[in-house]
Specification:
Elements: E1 5-7, E2 22-25, E3 28-34, H1 49-67, E4 75-82, H2 85-97, E5 107-112, E6 122-129
Parallel strand pairs: 4-5
Antiparallel strand pairs: 1-2, 2-3, 3-6, 4-6
Helix pairs in contact: 1-2
């Protein structure tokens, strides 16, 4: 196993707690759950409603992915946390699914929680995998 890399991504949102934006080991990239905070203004109010918050969270995750040289196509697993599960599950899914091409949805878990940092309605984390390098043809 290779040594872990700890990534802080320039231009990604300010962490709301002591953590790295992503940690990487052996081509696996673990993205810390993102909040619906604005990447340019940590003090700005959160967007209104779960749809807007889900878009902001997904856009923040894309910033982190790009910062480590990856994209949504590299994501293999997602966890979604909702504070109002019954009310927000459907609307969150509508926004979330629009970020991925049909038939290319990562594995996912979605759970209801009693609270999130900053009183957010949604938090999402991801696991991505770097593409394997082509092996040289042996002759």
């Amino acid at each position: 196993m290779s040594e872990a890399l700890f990534h802080m991504v320039q231009g990604a949102p300010t962490p709301v707690a002591p953590f790295s934006h992503a940690t990487e080991v052996d081509g696996w990239v673990f993205l810390t759950g993102q909040m619906p905070t604005h990447p340019d203004d940590d003090a700005a109010p959160l967007p209104e409603g779960v749809e807007a918050q889900t878009r902001r969270v997904m856009d923040n995750l894309i910033l982190v992915l790009r910062g480590v040289g990856l994209g949504l196509a590299n994501v293999v697993s997602v966890r979604v946390f909702l504070t109002r599960f019954q009310q927000d599950y459907g609307p969150m899914n509508a926004v979330y699914s629009a970020y991925f091409p049909p038939g290319r949805l990562p594995a996912r878990t979605c759970v209801g929680v009693t609270g999130l940092a900053r009183d957010a309605l949604v938090e999402i984390d991801m696991i991505a995998r770097r593409p394997r390098q082509e092996t040289a043809v042996r002759g």
